[in-house]
Design goal:
By secondary structure, the chain is of the alpha+beta class. It has three domains: 122 residues, Orthogonal Bundle (Butyryl-Coa Dehydrogenase, subunit A, domain 1), CATH 1.10.540; 98 residues, Butyryl-CoA Dehydrogenase, subunit A, domain 2 (Beta Barrel); 146 residues, Butyryl-CoA Dehydrogenase, subunit A, domain 3, CATH 1.20.140.10. 53% of the residues lie in helices and 15% in strands. It has eleven helices and nine strands. It has a four-stranded antiparallel β-sheet, covered by helices on one side. Helix 5 runs antiparallel to helix 6, helix 7 packs parallel to helix 9 and helix 7 packs antiparallel against helix 10. It is globular.
Amino acid sequence: MASSVEELFAFDSLLSDEEREIRSTVKKFADSALRPNLAEWFENATFPVRELAPEFGKLGLLGMHLEGYGCPGISATSYGLACLEIEAADSGARSLMSVQGSLSMTAIHKYGSEEQKEQWLPDMAAGTKIGCFGLTEPDFGSNPGGMRTRATRKGTDWVLNGSKMWITNGTVADVAIVWAQTEDKIRGFLVPTDTPGFTANEMHRKLSLRASITAELSFDDVVLPADAILPESRGLASPLGCLSEARFGIIFGSIGAARDCLESAVEYSKTREVFEKPLAGYQLTQAKLADMAVDIGNGMLLAVHLGRLKDQGVIRPEQVSVGKLNNTRTAIRVARECRTILGANGITLDYPVMRHANNLESVLTYEGTAEVHQLVVGQALTGESAFR
């Protein structure tokens, strides 16, 4: 009898009844609301954020690990399992979850005033208000501390100038969390997107994350009131703290994409005949499938282990880097190998494998490139920083 990766690793035995129920519910949502349309969205380079975000909100997927203000406050592991099932559908859909909950909402939740939290978080949790997270700039990706976007005081107001690049949901957002240099370190600002001087232009010609909206943001003498600043934000550690939350979701999400590729390759291999024999019956095919199943299973075990550490409040940034580095590399390797099993059919949108492979090129890079995470792990092992 054929087994799934979860069955091979007795994965469900590691989860509570609540965690299994959350995972099952999210999978059903992904199967019904996302999968039927993913090929079309990817081909047309679009994603109906405004229509889908309230559906995400009804399931409690937006800011689901945060407490209060309309957020469910469930465990980090449950959040990770939800990311796994959403990204098993598409990385762009999981990016909506991450940017809304782990970046934008987390920034407000961790660093905002009580008034800011009450103003924005309930609607963002419901998906009726959309947020974006403006950190990366055209010339400053892996080195965000070099950002040129600047906020200067003018009386009691702030004046914001600069630009941000690769901003998910930038053209559909109601509020942008913008990080800028000030006379007092890097600070975060809440910028309603209808503020004069704020411009968002959608980025086109992408070959990855096509079922996701990506924008460039520009700020031309954007005047913000004094209470636009996130009062508890101080220095680069503030946005990096949000990025660590998003990276955690990627640890689970990327392995979900890999699992979906493997399932597609297994099913294809059982029905595709080569020399009057199912492709699945060849030793070379089974060797590939077995190796990928082991890699994916190991990635799942690592994800749950890190989830437990996060739930206990003891996870360290370098451990998040281990998970992001390992599981994204595993996922993209699996996607490419599965494509070889599907042969020419693997390059079409009739199957999810090439779509996942293209998406994972972005997942490998954003929230810290593989090389950056190698250096984080290297510093943890040696005590020496090799960033400069």
